[in-house]
TrEMBL record:
Species for this entry: Raoultibacter timonensis
Lineage: Bacteria, Bacillati, Actinomycetota, Coriobacteriia, Eggerthellales
Protein name in UniProt: SAF domain-containing protein
SMART domains, per database record: SAF
InterPro entries in alphabetical order: Pilus_assmbl_Flp-typ_CpaB, RcpC_dom, SAF
One Pfam assignment: RcpC
Domain SAF residues, every copy: 48-110
Taxonomy, superkingdom: Bacteria
Amino acid sequence: MKRPATVAIGIICGIVCAGAVFAYLQSVKGEAESARAEALDRYGGEQVEVCVATRDIASGEKLDASNTTAKLWLADLVPSDAVRSVRDVYGEQVGTPIFEGEVVTSKRFSQGERQIDVPAGLSVLSIPVKDVQAIGGSIAPGQHVDVYATGAAETELLASDVAVVSSSNDSEAGLGGGSISWVALAVEPRSVQELIAASQKTELYLVLPGDEQGGASDEA
């Protein structure tokens, strides 16, 4: 008589355990759905997975697990040509620089589409900047800017009346759309070393001067 009773107790315990596990899974699912709903409510849109650079990637480098990862991004902010699957671009060589935190896009793999004309007597270099440092990302080729370096102690004018040659969002420049991550400038050769060093140690800001401001900058 004891054996059937033991079996029955075991079955009952199994049912209770299964019920507890099911209840736990439902609770976890509910919490996940709640967290997702909260995120959508807080950030205002659906999220999608995209490929993002985990460090600065130079032109000619190949993409792999050491420099890219998958991250969730607000769908409304994802570029139309964004790379969605990290696996799709592993081993691919980029044609233009990609900076840390930037969403990888298909145009980064384009090579030979555009040649940069270097003005006589000048050098062209690219500097890392964010939207807030480049007039909201609206900097466009052909404009002339003043370059300021700002650190913890001071803000310094590094170059005046510098021509913008290209940028990471050329297709959207002037429209205020998309995120900018770098700008190519035509500068005096003697300024190249100073600008590169400043870009590594400080934040660089691009300023569009008015006529009077431009004159003041030239005097400075």
